[in-house]
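In this supplementary section we document a worked example of the pipeline. Step one takes a protein sequence of length 192 as its only input; no multiple sequence alignment statistics are reported here. Step two produces a three-dimensional model, which step three serialises into structure tokens for compact storage. The input and output of this example are shown verbatim.
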Amino acid sequence: ILSDLATQFDKNGESQKALAVWRSLLKWNPQARLKDVALLRLGAAAAHNGEPQKAISFFERFEMECGKSALLPEMLLSRARMHFKNNDEPHLTGDLNRIAAAKSAPIRVKAEALLGLGELKIRKEEYENAIIYFQRAYVTCIASHEHAARAYERCAFAFEKINKADAAAQLYSELLNHPDLADTDAAKECRS
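The serialised model returned by step three reads:
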């Protein structure tokens, strides 16, 4: 009942009430069926609220107690976002790589991981390596149109940086002419 109540609060946008119920669920029923959801929500909320130590404790508990959960990629992405905020590149890279390697990661989560890894390579001016991640993103995540479009755009940018204007132009053309990607934000940015 508590998990249903917390889920309903989440759906209604009452996040503080939902977090209180998730805490109660863990306190009174630590072996609950949706313990993974509770730990994920509590960890993500702590990370969002600038409480990294609290978030880490929830995320570590998630890995120890729910490591085989289908929500593991989601947890890793939440933790990666926290590492990004804290400029913790080694841990960020580790979590993003784990997501990229996970066969069970939802397309949206895998796309964000691959795009994140590509952006890390761009920061280091490792454009050839960035291209590899962006290509993986647009090939494997085409069903997530916004992510695929962003991958096309960032890959073209990386090609420009290594003076391969023809390859960049081809990608921009594919992005702008692809029926599923032409109306995305990334395509609109390319047009302007």
